[in-house]
């Protein structure tokens, strides 16, 4: 596992991603048995230092906070603009059976970034699953930035160094999002002032 280092010492030789993924699988079992992970999602995340780096290995999504691994996701705000210039936003209420933030308000579409997909392809997939949105409409989403944060959502289970790819999408008046995968209980079209007040005065929105 070692190779010569530039300083004359020894360095650990990087393992092949597939081999390292297999080696990490029992680690996830140990973390789960110790109560250090949330409910398994059955979804693999790609581990890498930065978005542009090659993948190091893949691991079960629920284990990433316990190991302090950076994770990515996509978030989309879908809005309808009125003739007078005011905005209304399609706000989702998360399923009351979700293991994280059940029943809280959320963006129109949001999801973690699984292994093997680009951010754009993942967004299109999530739009179909969470909002019943046609791919042709989802492709019109505009990237608006990246939100980076460190967050301990469950004390003792590690810190999440997440990066969210942010998008917005102008939706036609006739489109109504309908959840297809059970992760969203309902959608409400809310006026911009109502959304602002909920964020400012309540804890109803997911962190």
Structure description:
The chain contains 4 helices and 11 strands. The radius of gyration is 20 Å and the shape is globular. Strand 9 and strand 10 (160-170) form a beta hairpin. Helices cover 21% and strands 33% of the residues. The strands form 3 sheets. Strands 5, 6, 7, 8, 9, 10 and 11 form a 7-stranded mixed sheet that branches. A two-stranded antiparallel ribbon has the order 1-2. A two-stranded antiparallel sheet has the order 3-4.
Précis, in short:
With 207 residues, the chain is of the alpha+beta class. 21% of the residues lie in helices and 33% in strands. It has four helices and eleven strands, in the order ββαββββββααβββα.
Question: Ranges with pLDDT <50 over ≥5 residues?
Answer: none
Chain-averaged pLDDT: 91
Helical residues, percent: 10-25%
> Total number of β-strand segments?
11
- Gross geometry: globular
Could you state the order of secondary-structure elements as H and E? EEHEEEEEEHHEEEH
Q: Mind describing the biggest β-sheet?
A: 7 strands, mixed
Share of β-strand residues: 25-35%
Evaluate the radius of gyration: 20 Å
Ends apart, CA distance between termini: 42 Å
Note the total helix count. Answer: 4
- Structural class per helix/strand content? alpha+beta
